[in-house]
Design goal:
The complex is a heterodimer of chains A (186) and B (191). Chain A has three helices and ten strands, in the order H-H-E-H-E-E-E-E-E-E-E-E-E. Chain A folds into two domains: 29-60; 80-185, Immunoglobulin-like (Sandwich), CATH 2.60.40.760. The longest helix of chain A has 28 residues, at 33-60. Chain A is an alpha+beta fold and 186 residues long. With 191 residues, chain B is mostly helical. Chain B has one domain (3-190). Chain B has ten helices and no strands. In chain B, helix 1 (6-14) packs across helix 2, helix 2 (18-38) runs antiparallel to helix 8 and helix 4 packs parallel to helix 9 (156-163). Classes of the chains: A alpha+beta (186), B mainly alpha (191). At the A-B interface, helix 1, helix 2 and strand 10 of A face helix 2, helix 3, helix 4, helix 6 and helix 7 of B.
Chain lengths: 186, 191
């Protein structure tokens, strides 16, 4: 088999989903005993190389320890009493890009039952509104143990002049329930 | 970690068992990290994606419909966050310099210190060469292999979720990519 023949993904940009099935059935097992032994040798060599690579990854590209610790601490974010407001709109994914405009705000919409939270994130901070309008206590969460209150008016409009850095979520207390938006990277 | 334990660990973590959460983090972190690395994000972006995935997992814990498939859930969440980063970057300058974006972590591990000792020098050299050659493979192979070699080995369902490719295509692609890599190593050895 020629290894350099017909391998369409070499140098591809990673967006070539959809044509992988062309590999299916590419290596039929040989019938002759000698061929079968060769095929088994090759499979064993594959497994060996894979294991060698696994060890290389563990040595040269391990999960940074600081990250592992953050993931351990994240257990504190587990809160079964809070409702999750799911992300239903993200301008990064759902909006058409505007040609020539570079510093567009990130528009996000979260929904939990009848309640909607709209957020606009810019380099200067974030602002948004809870709908239907009403008073709420709102905090911006930045990770386990990091919470910062934001100013809210009686109509549920809120602003903060500190843009979230890294993953963030909003925790809303309406008086009757607590709602947390899905964690997201700003 | 045995993948058959994952569902039970998730259920224990939901019930407040911190040791179960720790086991999940330790068992699944390399998979999440491999997805981040496979997408060649910068260190800063990669770290944020990794954190986002775990924060969201903690948040959804107890609401995950199929706890047994937590690995695929994590892999898929990581993939989508990576794709968002890439999408957000397209308006900025996109660097495709592997020296900048895909270098190995700077953190030196005890294993690495050990491997630097003299008696291990040959082995270390081969490991470095393997890593270089892996980096030089086409994007498709590099991505597949980086996720495939997470430790413990991910299932094909998890790899499928991590890269958005069909489960049935993984085996043949794996074989093709490993053999290409071996050919490159042989070629280099002969040169």
């Amino acid at each position: 088999m020629n290894e350099d023949n017909g391998f369409p993904y070499d140098g591809a940009d990673g967006n070539s989903d959809g044509a992988e099935d062309s590999f299916a059935g590419e290596t039929p097992p040989g019938d002759a005993p000698a061929e079968r032994v060769l095929a088994e040798d090759a499979l064993a060599a594959d497994a060996l190389l894979e294991e060698e690579l696994r060890q290389a990854a563990a040595v040269l590209d391990p999960v940074p320890e600081t990250l592992c610790q953050i993931a351990l601490d994240a257990y504190a974010l587990h809160d079964l009493d809070a409702k999750i407001a799911e992300l239903t709109f993200d301008s990064l994914v759902d909006a058409l890009p505007v040609r020539g405009v570079t510093d567009v705000p990130r528009m996000l919409t979260f929904r939990a039952g009848p309640l909607t939270v709209d957020i606009e994130v810019t380099g200067d901070g974030l602002m948004g509104q809870v709908l239907p309008p009403g008073p709420a206590r709102i905090e911006v969460l930045g990770g386990p143990g990091a919470a910062r209150p934001v100013a809210v008016d009686t109509l549920g409009r809120f602003t903060s002049d500190t843009p979230p850095s890294g993953p963030f979520a909003l925790r809303l207390s309406t008086g009757t329930e607590v709602i947390v938006t899905e964690w997201l990277r700003a | 970690m045995d993948r058959t334990e994952v569902g039970a660990l998730v259920r224990s973590a939901v019930d407040g068992d911190a040791a179960a959460w720790k086991a999940l983090v330790e068992g699944m972190s390399p998979l999440v990290w491999s997805v981040v690395r496979a997408h060649r994000l910068s260190d800063a972006d990669g770290h944020e994606v990794y954190q986002t995935v775990w924060f969201r997992f903690a948040q959804h814990l107890g609401r995950i419909r199929e706890p047994d498939k937590t690995g695929a859930w994590l892999a898929s969440t990581a993939r989508h966050e990576c794709l968002k980063v890439i999408k957000g970057m397209t308006r900025l300058t996109l660097t495709d310099d592997p020296q900048v974006l895909d270098r190995a972590s700077d953190d030196r591990t005890p294993e690495q210190t050990l491997i630097d000792s003299e008696e291990a020098a040959d082995r270390a050299e081969r490991v470095r060469r393997l890593w270089q050659e892996l980096d030089g493979l086409g994007a498709r192979c590099r991505q597949l292999l980086r996720v495939l070699i997470a430790s413990p080995p991910p299932s094909y369902v998890e790899i499928s979720a991590a890269l958005g490719i069909a489960v049935g295509s993984i085996g043949p692609l794996r074989q093709r990519c490993l053999r290409r890599l071996r050919a490159r190593m042989d070629q280099r050895g002969a040169a």
